[in-house]
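Sample entry (102 residues):
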Amino acid sequence: MRAILLILILGVVALIAAISLGLVDFTQTRGAKPPTLQAQDGTIRAVPGQTPAFEVETGSVGVGQRETNVAAQVGPVRGQTTVAVPTVEVRRPADPQANAAQ
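Predicted structure, serialized as tokens:
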């Protein structure tokens, strides 16, 4: 039970961090309407409501590598050598208002 609670707490914290860093963007595209009841001539008729709709845009993460020179000492000889180092790029979602203006 504690493990499930810990996982839920970590999930909520991760979602809050993603929203605050701008990696997730929620836009409401359709509002909610509650259902209504109508009574006429002794009958009750229910008119369904409408659920809200949201558009969710998420950022992306790119992983790659690049070449870089580092100082290395191989035995008694010092010199420069080229090695591949990993790179990580975090891209935020595109601004929907900027896309609409174009």
